[in-house]
Design brief:
about 150 residues; mainly alpha; elongated; Marvel; transmembrane
Protein backbone atom coordinates (compact mmCIF):
# COMPACT_ATOMS: atom_id res chain seq x y z
CA UNK A 1 0.00 0.00 0.00
CA UNK A 2 1.45 3.33 -1.03
CA UNK A 3 1.64 6.03 1.58
CA UNK A 4 0.11 9.40 0.97
CA UNK A 5 2.27 12.38 1.80
CA UNK A 6 1.18 15.96 2.15
CA UNK A 7 3.00 16.76 -1.09
CA UNK A 8 0.34 14.70 -2.86
CA UNK A 9 -2.44 16.62 -1.12
CA UNK A 10 -1.61 20.32 -1.35
CA UNK A 11 -0.39 21.92 -4.56
CA UNK A 12 2.58 24.24 -4.77
CA UNK A 13 3.75 26.77 -7.30
CA UNK A 14 1.63 27.40 -10.34
CA UNK A 15 -0.35 24.19 -9.78
CA UNK A 16 -2.63 26.21 -7.49
CA UNK A 17 -4.07 27.84 -10.61
CA UNK A 18 -5.26 24.48 -11.91
CA UNK A 19 -6.25 22.47 -8.82
CA UNK A 20 -9.55 22.36 -7.08
CA UNK A 21 -10.43 24.05 -4.60
CA UNK A 22 -7.37 26.31 -4.86
CA UNK A 23 -8.68 27.83 -8.05
CA UNK A 24 -11.11 29.75 -5.80
CA UNK A 25 -8.25 32.02 -4.63
CA UNK A 26 -8.62 34.39 -7.59
CA UNK A 27 -12.41 34.92 -7.34
CA UNK A 28 -12.04 35.33 -3.57
CA UNK A 29 -9.54 38.14 -4.23
CA UNK A 30 -11.81 39.83 -6.76
CA UNK A 31 -15.11 39.65 -4.88
CA UNK A 32 -13.54 40.27 -1.46
CA UNK A 33 -11.76 43.33 -2.85
CA UNK A 34 -15.02 44.57 -4.35
CA UNK A 35 -16.75 44.27 -0.98
CA UNK A 36 -13.96 46.27 0.59
CA UNK A 37 -14.11 48.98 -2.09
CA UNK A 38 -17.91 49.22 -2.20
CA UNK A 39 -18.34 49.43 1.58
CA UNK A 40 -15.58 52.02 1.81
CA UNK A 41 -17.28 54.18 -0.83
CA UNK A 42 -20.74 54.27 0.77
CA UNK A 43 -22.24 56.21 3.62
CA UNK A 44 -24.56 54.51 6.08
CA UNK A 45 -25.57 55.82 9.44
CA UNK A 46 -24.64 54.37 11.99
CA UNK A 47 -21.15 53.44 10.82
CA UNK A 48 -20.40 50.98 13.67
CA UNK A 49 -21.71 47.80 12.00
CA UNK A 50 -19.82 48.73 8.87
CA UNK A 51 -16.64 48.56 10.93
CA UNK A 52 -17.22 44.82 11.31
CA UNK A 53 -17.89 44.44 7.58
CA UNK A 54 -14.68 46.33 6.76
CA UNK A 55 -12.71 44.26 9.28
CA UNK A 56 -13.99 41.02 7.76
CA UNK A 57 -13.32 42.07 4.17
CA UNK A 58 -9.81 43.34 4.96
CA UNK A 59 -8.99 40.35 7.22
CA UNK A 60 -10.10 37.84 4.60
CA UNK A 61 -8.40 39.72 1.76
CA UNK A 62 -5.06 39.85 3.61
CA UNK A 63 -5.46 36.28 4.90
CA UNK A 64 -6.22 34.97 1.41
CA UNK A 65 -3.26 36.90 0.02
CA UNK A 66 -0.92 35.38 2.60
CA UNK A 67 -2.43 31.93 2.05
CA UNK A 68 -2.04 32.33 -1.71
CA UNK A 69 1.64 33.25 -1.44
CA UNK A 70 2.34 30.43 1.03
CA UNK A 71 0.85 27.98 -1.47
CA UNK A 72 2.62 29.65 -4.39
CA UNK A 73 6.04 29.48 -2.69
CA UNK A 74 5.57 25.88 -1.52
CA UNK A 75 5.56 26.57 2.20
CA UNK A 76 2.53 24.33 2.71
CA UNK A 77 4.20 20.92 2.72
CA UNK A 78 3.92 20.08 6.42
CA UNK A 79 1.23 17.63 7.51
CA UNK A 80 -0.60 20.35 9.45
CA UNK A 81 -1.42 22.50 6.40
CA UNK A 82 -4.51 20.66 5.10
CA UNK A 83 -6.20 21.20 8.49
CA UNK A 84 -5.09 24.82 8.63
CA UNK A 85 -6.42 25.36 5.11
CA UNK A 86 -9.83 23.98 6.06
CA UNK A 87 -9.82 25.93 9.34
CA UNK A 88 -8.93 29.28 7.77
CA UNK A 89 -11.64 28.97 5.15
CA UNK A 90 -14.19 27.90 7.75
CA UNK A 91 -13.41 31.00 9.83
CA UNK A 92 -13.67 33.13 6.68
CA UNK A 93 -17.12 31.65 5.96
CA UNK A 94 -18.40 32.39 9.46
CA UNK A 95 -16.99 35.94 9.35
CA UNK A 96 -18.31 36.70 5.87
CA UNK A 97 -21.73 35.24 6.62
CA UNK A 98 -22.10 37.46 9.68
CA UNK A 99 -20.85 40.50 7.76
CA UNK A 100 -23.18 39.77 4.83
CA UNK A 101 -26.23 39.51 7.06
CA UNK A 102 -25.34 42.72 8.90
CA UNK A 103 -24.69 44.56 5.64
CA UNK A 104 -27.97 43.38 4.12
CA UNK A 105 -29.91 44.40 7.22
CA UNK A 106 -28.33 47.86 7.33
CA UNK A 107 -28.94 48.38 3.62
CA UNK A 108 -32.57 47.29 3.99
CA UNK A 109 -33.29 49.51 7.00
CA UNK A 110 -31.40 52.60 5.80
CA UNK A 111 -32.88 53.35 2.42
CA UNK A 112 -30.92 56.35 1.23
CA UNK A 113 -32.35 59.37 -0.53
CA UNK A 114 -29.41 59.25 -2.93
CA UNK A 115 -30.06 56.39 -5.34
CA UNK A 116 -26.37 56.14 -6.31
CA UNK A 117 -25.32 55.37 -2.73
CA UNK A 118 -28.21 52.92 -2.35
CA UNK A 119 -27.10 51.07 -5.49
CA UNK A 120 -23.54 50.89 -4.14
CA UNK A 121 -24.92 49.44 -0.91
CA UNK A 122 -26.88 46.79 -2.81
CA UNK A 123 -23.83 45.94 -4.91
CA UNK A 124 -21.79 45.54 -1.70
CA UNK A 125 -24.43 43.18 -0.30
CA UNK A 126 -24.41 41.07 -3.47
CA UNK A 127 -20.60 40.92 -3.60
CA UNK A 128 -20.48 40.02 0.09
CA UNK A 129 -22.87 37.12 -0.43
CA UNK A 130 -20.91 35.93 -3.46
CA UNK A 131 -17.72 36.07 -1.37
CA UNK A 132 -19.46 34.06 1.34
CA UNK A 133 -20.44 31.44 -1.22
CA UNK A 134 -16.89 31.24 -2.62
CA UNK A 135 -15.35 30.85 0.82
CA UNK A 136 -18.01 28.26 1.69
CA UNK A 137 -17.21 26.17 -1.38
CA UNK A 138 -13.49 26.49 -0.70
CA UNK A 139 -14.07 25.47 2.92
CA UNK A 140 -16.10 22.38 2.01
CA UNK A 141 -13.61 21.12 -0.56
CA UNK A 142 -10.65 21.93 1.70
CA UNK A 143 -12.27 19.88 4.47
CA UNK A 144 -12.77 16.99 2.05
CA UNK A 145 -9.11 17.25 1.01
CA UNK A 146 -8.06 17.37 4.68
CA UNK A 147 -10.04 14.22 5.50
CA UNK A 148 -8.41 12.38 2.59
CA UNK A 149 -4.89 13.31 3.70
Amino acid sequence: MASTTSADVLPTGTRIFTTFPDIFFIPEFVFGGLVWILVASTYIDPPNPLGWVMFVSIFCFIGTTLWFFIFLCGGNQSSIWPGLDAGFHHVAVVFYLSASVILAYITFTNVQKDIKIYRLDIAAVVMSHVSTLLYFLHSIFSAIRWRRS
